[in-house]
Design the sequence.
């Protein structure tokens, strides 16, 4: 039996979720009205129910995110929501708070959010043994680590392959709380990582005056799909529950095509849902929102990943400015630019900047507001007016389910049988007095022609068979009517016969991989505490939100490294790094200051508030190049 491989798309709302399914998604993930980590992407239970129906028509799945941390006074409300989601047919919940595992739940499938510390085989195996059917792996993992996890447990593995990257480990970021008591773990991330900072060394010297030093490029692992499948991943996740519909349709469509190319003729893997999508545009990921792309750490640390000029969309590279002419720009590849396009460039002051094209006149891009640019400036298009207009159309991506039709006689009339690509059957008949056609010309071609007209239904006719004993006269209106009836019935049958996997969580007491939990485990209620204690944990720190010590806290741990971005990494850039930086390095934005601490052995960077008392160890000592003092 082939293993199913899935494209998992974000759904900000019902409309975008349906668009993602039409574009080829095998599943969508979305928020309900509470407890999702994107407070601006909530949906009513009624809209989620409609999403479930539409997805299940194509045998696609709907996952609902309940991935915030919970407080004691929210536990009952959360449990009630879970029962409502189960009752409307949701396929799975994505959670990070282990309180949910303590609840008396319906038999609904549970997935572990990437915020559940899914970084190693021990933790992932534990979650599977506790009853979770899928684990969303930490984005920071490389292929070898993914493979190691896959070999340790047969839990389903999901991995982000497209979209924005959270610079903190698996979203465990506390800068929002420390700066304004907005908790990212409660759905209210303030995007502190996208702000401009000064970088100051240990002597007080400003190394970089104003740059987005924690902002990183977006993820693109589209060329890594075969390698990730080989390593054990079966669900490819697109980030973006706050993105627009062009981004969702474009990224979903692009990944769908890439994955389909791999699956074609494959003897081990197959698509996870039904139907096929027809596109009226050419998907290209760099034509929708992006900050430039990186493979992150999937192939280990090999590239700089910062997006320091701007946290805004960079878009698609067009070419260099060749000439300034008539208050406009002559740009390489100007022929692909259109009126209304948005341009991105770095201006003469070294700052990210942009302009909108008012009109393309011959070979000149004339902006609404002219800004002087040097010849040779690289130009990107971060808003593609024609492309956006094309993708926004409802028919830009149309999904159809293959169906075979058989039109035959009955004793007192005629019958139409429809069998879809998954074997579901629908049959309708009508009674009529049979009369021979006046013309000797066969009626069969005309019957086939009208049976093939599926219009706005979700079906496409792959095969039509007509069996008649004589050349009977048939009103075309009756043929059209029976076709409509049989296909409408087939929609209902597909939804009704959809098989949802169910699983009843049973409480276990197998040991947790560690016995002491710090605040990064986000334990914020009594039920999560009980869960960990039952599994042998002896010390449990409260969640950051419940015990923040202003001015002295560690607000982020990240695989991203400012030293590496500066070419000053003692491990990977030793031969070219030159003089060491004088530590501690400090990031400053307005009144907010943070100290950077570099842990070179695990290749991680920590960000601490300015009053934290830290001990700094020289990188050469950490790496064993010189003896420890």
Sequence:
């Amino acid at each position: 039996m082939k293993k199913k491989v899935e494209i998992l798309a974000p759904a900000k709302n019902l409309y975008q979720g349906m668009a993602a399914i039409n574009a080829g998604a095998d599943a969508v993930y979305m928020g309900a009205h509470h407890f999702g980590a994107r407070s601006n992407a909530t949906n009513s239970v009624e809209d989620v129910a409609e999403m479930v129906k539409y997805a299940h028509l194509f045998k696609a799945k709907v996952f609902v995110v309940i991935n915030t941390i919970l407080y004691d006074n929210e536990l009952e409300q959360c449990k009630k929501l879970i029962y409502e989601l189960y009752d409307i047919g949701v396929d799975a919940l994505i959670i990070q708070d282990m309180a949910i595992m303590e609840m008396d739940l319906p038999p609904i499938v549970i997935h572990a959010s990437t915020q559940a510390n899914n970084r190693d085989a021990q933790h992932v195996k534990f979650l599977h043994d506790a009853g979770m059917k899928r684990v969303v792996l930490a984005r920071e993992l490389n292929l070898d680590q993914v493979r190691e996890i896959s070999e340790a447990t047969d839990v389903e593995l999901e991995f982000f392959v497209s979209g924005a990257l959270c610079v903190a480990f698996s979203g465990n970021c506390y800068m929002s709380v420390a700066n304004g008591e907005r908790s990212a773990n409660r759905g209210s991330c303030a995007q502190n990582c996208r702000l401009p900072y000064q970088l100051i060394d240990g002597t007080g010297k400003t190394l970089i005056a104003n740059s987005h030093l924690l902002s990183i490029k977006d993820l693109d692992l589209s060329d890594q799909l075969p390698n990730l499948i080989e390593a054990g991943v079966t669900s490819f996740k697109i980030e973006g529950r706050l993105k627009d519909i062009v981004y969702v349709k474009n990224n979903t469509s692009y990944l769908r095509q890439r994955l389909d190319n791999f699956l074609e003729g494959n003897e081990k893997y197959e698509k996870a849902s039904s139907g096929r999508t027809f596109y009226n545009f050419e998907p290209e990921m760099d034509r929708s929102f992006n900050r430039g792309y990186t493979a992150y750490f999937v192939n280990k640390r090999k590239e700089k990943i910062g997006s320091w000029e701007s946290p805004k969309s960079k878009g698609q590279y067009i070419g260099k400015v060749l000439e300034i002419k008539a208050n406009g720009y002559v740009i390489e590849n100007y022929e692909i630019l259109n009126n209304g396009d948005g341009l991105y460039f770095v201006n003469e002051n070294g700052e990210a900047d942009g302009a909108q094209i008012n009109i393309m006149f011959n070979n000149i891009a004339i902006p609404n507001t002219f800004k002087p640019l040097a010849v040779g400036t690289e130009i990107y298009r971060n808003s593609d007016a024609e492309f956006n207009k094309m993708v926004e159309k409802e028919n830009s991506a149309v999904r159809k389910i293959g169906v075979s039709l058989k039109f035959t006689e009955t004793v007192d009339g005629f019958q139409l049988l429809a069998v879809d690509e998954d074997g579901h059957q629908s049959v309708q008949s009508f009674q009529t007095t049979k009369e021979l056609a006046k013309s000797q010309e066969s009626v069969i071609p005309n019957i086939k022609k009208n049976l093939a007209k599926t219009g706005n239904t979700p079906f496409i006719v792959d095969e039509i068979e007509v069996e008649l004993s004589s050349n009977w006269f048939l009103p075309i209106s009756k043929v059209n009517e029976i076709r409509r009836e049989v296909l409408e019935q087939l929609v209902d049958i597909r939804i009704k016969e959809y098989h949802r996997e169910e699983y009843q969580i049973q409480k276990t007491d197998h040991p947790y991989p560690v016995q002491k939990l710090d605040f990064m485990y986000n334990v914020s209620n009594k039920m999560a505490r009980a869960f960990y204690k039952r599994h042998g944990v002896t010390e449990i720190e409260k969640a950051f939100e419940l015990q923040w010590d202003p001015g002295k806290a560690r607000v982020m741990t990240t695989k991203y490294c400012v030293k590496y971005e500066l070419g000053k990494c003692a491990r990977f850039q030793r031969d070219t790094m030159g003089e060491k930086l004088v530590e501690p390095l400090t990031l400053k934005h307005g009144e907010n200051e943070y100290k950077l601490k570099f842990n070179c052995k695990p290749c991680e960077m920590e960000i601490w508030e300015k009053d934290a008392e830290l001990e700094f160890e020289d990188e050469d000592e950490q790496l064993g190049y010189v003896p420890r003092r």
Observations:
- The mean pLDDT is 95.
